[in-house]
Amino acid sequence: MNIRIRKEMPADHRIVEELTREAFWGNLDHPTCDGEHLLVHKLRTLPSFVAELDLVAEVDGKIAGHVIYSRAKVLTPDEILPVKLLTDQLPEQVKQTFARHEIRFVAQLQRYSGAELLEWEGMDESLLMKINGILSRLGQPCKLLPSSYILQLTELGVRNPVCSLIRSKAGIFLYRVEAEGKKLILKVFENQENAREIDNYLLLSELDIPTLPLLGYTQNAILLPDAEAGGEYRLGKESDLNNTKVAGAIARWYTMLHKKGRAYLSGSESPMYDESDVLTADNMRLIAEKTGTAENMLWHTITGNYDRIRSRIDALPRTLTYNDFYWTNLLVSKTGESAFMFDYNLLGKGIAYGDIRNVTGSLSPEAAAAFIQEYGDDIDEEQKKADAFIAPLVTLANACRYETFPTWAATSLEELKNGELLKHLREWLQLEGVK
Predict the structure, then answer these.
(1) What is the per-residue pLDDT across 372-411, written as a single tens digit (0 to 9) for each?
(2) pLDDT tens digits for 218-254?
(3) Is the distance from CB of 174 to CB of 167 less than 8 angstroms?
(4) Sorting pLDDT into bands at 50, 70 and 90, what band is 87?
(5) What is the DSSP pairing of strand 80-84 with strand 162-169?
């Protein structure tokens, strides 16, 4: 059998229309068709007709299948719905061949923009990315995704930008931008889950908590000033972890975050990111399986008391928590009197002590003491005991999402194996008699 896929020619029109009529004849259990062949005839004359994707399949020199596309919209009382119109299903023996040959016709999509393609029914960003992969292998320019930095800068009104990629990781792209004498930073989020950082910037600004000024934002990106371009603040340095003055400034920012965060959450049912949400019964079983510790007493204790443990976790007082302290996320005033964190992708709600432990564990002993002194004595002992159990377990839950167990979770795994985690759980729940 010789199967060939090619563009439809004018000489094929009558054959294709008869094929269409036969394909739809009796389709609704009555011996007729409803004019699909006439629809094909008329579609070829419309501006919405996609000529590059008007294809026929020949089997041994005879036309056996036809596919036709038209850009169209369905009007409803409330909205306009974009659709894709497809007629003439290919015979079964042709389908696999068409699939093998479709790469040849992807290049014909070049005259349509990424935005246009996404208006077609059945086309989403994942499929557009697949098409881009094919175009790249063919040596042709790729389509711009809606999250493209070029489209974001256009939407933000940034004119004549010169851009350079600083880094990209897990669907988050950071660009340095120069435009009309200004030095800017553009952060683009490929995934909507990561785009929560946009709302976090807006929330901190609303609460008057020091952040980088948000110069603009879209559904997929934020525009910020470039802190390295001069001004009142500088980027953090590793030596700041040993600086007691800087540690005090960091403590003042966290104190404000936690104080205003408690007030905000007390009147809000905000569905914010919460690290402890990963501590589900299913994830406990996953950790036990992936770490080879199913016989560890910790899991027997958790299984027997899971509802009580979960209730105690949920009852802990919540505030806004940063969850991601490191000197690379730090901005310090040039006088050293003030400092604040940036990069709010992991900002969420949690217990304040989690942040305190996160910061002091990264600082030198002297700087950690300065942090605690400035933060004050508002440190809840119950939170401290709870965090000793919760934090390593959260780390293990996140680590077990990876195919290869990451080295950054090694300490938490050791705490599980040597009984420290079980000890912390018993100490925390001792008030309720759980052993």
Answers:
(1) 999 987 788 889 999 999 999 999 999 999 989 999 999 9
(2) 988 999 999 888 788 999 999 999 999 999 999 999 9
(3) yes
(4) very low
(5) unpaired
Question: What residues have CB less than 8 Å from 380, skipping those under 6 apart?
Answer: 317, 351, 352, 353
Taking the alpha carbons of 94, 95, 101, 106 in that order, is the dihedral positive or negative? positive
First to last CA, the chain: 74
Q: Which two tokens stand for residue 224?
A: 């910020």
- Distance (Å, rounded) from C-alpha 276 to C-alpha 283? 11
Residue 172 · residue 194 · CB < 8 Å: yes
Task: Tell me the chain's radius of gyration from C-alpha atoms.
Answer: 30
Residue pair 414/395 in contact (Cβ under 8 Å)? The answer is no
The reply to whether the predicted model has a pTM over 0.85 is no
What's the CA gap between 400 and 287, in Å, rounded? 6
The C-alpha angle with vertex 74 and arms to 109 and 7, in degrees rounded to 5, equals: 30
What pLDDT, in 10s, does the model give residues 326-348? 999 999 998 989 999 999 989 99
177 token code pair: 């931008």
Dihedral class, residue 69 (left if φ above 0, else alpha if ψ from -120 to 50, else beta): beta
| Cα–Cα distance for residue pair 435/422, rounded to 1 Å | 9
Helix (H, G, I), strand (E, B) or coil at 209: coil
DSSP-derived secondary structure for 210-236: ------EE-SSEEEEE-GGG-SSEEE-
DSSP 354-392: HHHHHHHTTS-HHHHHHHHHHH-S---HHHHHHHHHHHH
Count of CB atoms within 10 A of residue 297's CB? Answer: 11
DSSP state of 407: G
Q: Do 349 and 319 form a contact (C-beta atoms < 8 A)?
A: yes
Residue 97 · residue 57 · CB < 8 Å: yes
